[in-house]
Amino acid sequence: METQIQSRLDELESRLAFQDDMIETLNETITRQDRDLVRMELRLQALADKLKDLAESSAMPGASAAHEVPPHY
Fold this sequence. Notes:
The chain is mainly alpha-helical. It is 79% helix and 0% strand.
């Protein structure tokens, strides 16, 4: 009876060790993904700011030759 209890205890300790390792691995993955998301959000905001600046500069009269009528018209 005592060997059976010891065997079950060993099995539970083994499972607990694997679960602890898995939790740590998942935690590291989530932390890395959070850092990646923050970095991507910053880059996205920078791109949005650039697009906004480009849109504003093209809306100004004479700022962009793309909207001007060619001289032969």
